[in-house]
Amino acid sequence: MSFNINLENIKKRCKSFFFMLFVGGISWGFYHASVPDITDLIESRSIVYFFWGSFSLLLMFPVGFFFTLCIAYVTFTKSMQPPKFFDRVFTIGIHVAGVGFVVGNILSFIVIFYPLGTNYVLCERPGPTSGTYYTRTEEICEQVKHLRKTRASRDIPKLKDQLDGVSPP
Fold it and tell me: Are 50 and 111 in contact (CB under 8 A)?
């Protein structure tokens, strides 16, 4: 009994496997970056850190997860050839990601102007590409500014939990 080892095929599988891990990690990062912002908005917390791309990232997460599964399918098949319908499925996935990006940006602008613009005080914007802190009152805003100025930003979630009466995990 002899085995034929095709090193080129093994290289392709390894590259595909690591690309699958990369796409999966990016997808998980999208989810992890967007859910806390949106959850704080839904729960109407005292301090909200909102990044304008949160909705887009959340709406693109399913597409990234789907692409991860497709790459896994191709990686672990015997021939490493995707079925013919994958062309159409990838095209649909790209279109869904585009729609998610557009709808997510529209939702972000609506959220910035309505709930955050009327019920919250714009507190601090660290930079043009980072998120923005919104608070319920000016007093809370002063506390957040003090924590950011003293480099104790990790204490902001503790302050938020204390103000909202949430017990720490």
Answer: yes
